[in-house]
């Protein structure tokens, strides 16, 4: 069976986010970009299944500007066999992304669709669930463990009360949480080999999907600066301040 992995190009998690001066969005000019960390975990899991002989092919998919090719080449260097870029300058939102993923999953006849549980730029946590809805496939979200048992998957997912075990029929949509695995680094030889692996470019129109955003962001603003702390001489003063200033007791 084949696996497809969605990988998103986001601002690197080490970069301090800055809002544009006009409040129209987040500043991305001259900012280091990288693969969404949760997507790295999803990709690693798909590659491990391939190495175990469970999956025959891993296809990496990204959506956005042509610069997303860099993210896809990274995925190919990690172990994906080929890549697909849905190239568009539209402001993509989870609904459009999930529609395009579902179309590609059907076109490529994949059995497993992997995603990170969320992207660190918008923290939407919606795409995997909506893609499962469009496909009509079972879904395992927030995965911390995955095993293939014949024509089914046995997964553990993280919930508020601990861990939940599920048995899913294949095909299925899976979203990765932090504890699923430890992603590998791409070696230099594999980075060189990735340059020769196939990377197909399509457009949303080719997939029959309108990527126009359904939600409009009016403005963005940075949170107000946090006031500095103070040191009090004793517990009595602390209690008095909590009562008179913080109004918590």
TrEMBL record:
Cofactor(s) needed for function: AMP
Coiled-coil segments: none
One Pfam family, short name: ETF
Domain Electron transfer flavoprotein alpha/beta-subunit N-terminal, chain residue ranges per copy: 23-211
Job description of the protein: The electron transfer flavoprotein serves as a specific electron acceptor for other dehydrogenases. It transfers the electrons to the main respiratory chain via ETF-ubiquinone oxidoreductase (ETF dehydrogenase).
Subunit architecture: Heterodimer of an alpha and a beta subunit.
Species of origin: Phaeovibrio sulfidiphilus
Keywords, sorted A to Z: Electron transport, Transport
Family: Belongs to the ETF beta-subunit/FixA family.
Record protein name field: Electron transfer flavoprotein subunit beta
SMART domains in the cross-refs: ETF (SM00893)
One term of GO molecular function: electron transfer activity
A GO biological-process term: carboxylic acid catabolic process
Gene3D superfamilies (alphabetical): HUPs
Top-level taxon: Bacteria
């Amino acid at each position: 069976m084949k696996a497809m992995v969605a990988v998103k190009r986001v601002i690197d998690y080490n970069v301090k986010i800055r809002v544009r001066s006009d409040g129209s969005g987040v500043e991305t000019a001259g900012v280091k970009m990288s693969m969404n960390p949760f997507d790295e975990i999803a990709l690693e899991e798909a590659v491990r299944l391939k190495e175990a002989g469970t999956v025959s092919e891993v296809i990496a998919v990204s959506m956005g500007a042509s610069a997303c090719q860099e993210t896809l080449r990274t995925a190919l260097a990690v172990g994906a066999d080929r890549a697909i870029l849905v190239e568009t300058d539209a402001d993509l939102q989870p609904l459009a992304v999930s529609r395009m993923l579902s179309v590609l999953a059907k076109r490529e006849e994949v059995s497993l669709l992997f995603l990170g549980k969320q992207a660190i730029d918008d923290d939407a946590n919606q795409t995997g669930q909506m893609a499962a809805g469009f496909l009509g496939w079972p879904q395992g979200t927030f995965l911390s463990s995955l095993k293939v048992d014949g024509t089914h998957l046995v997964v553990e997912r993280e919930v508020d009360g601990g861990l939940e075990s599920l048995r899913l029929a294949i095909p299925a949509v899976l979203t990765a949480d932090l504890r699923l695995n430890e992603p590998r680094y791409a070696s230099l030889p594999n980075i060189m080999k990735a340059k020769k692996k196939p990377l197909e470019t399509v457009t949303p129109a080719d997939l029959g999907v309108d990527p126009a955003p359904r939600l409009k962001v009016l403005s963005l603003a940075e949170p107000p600066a946090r006031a500095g702390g103070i040191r009090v001489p004793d517990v009595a003063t602390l209690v008095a301040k909590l009562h008179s200033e913080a109004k918590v007791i």
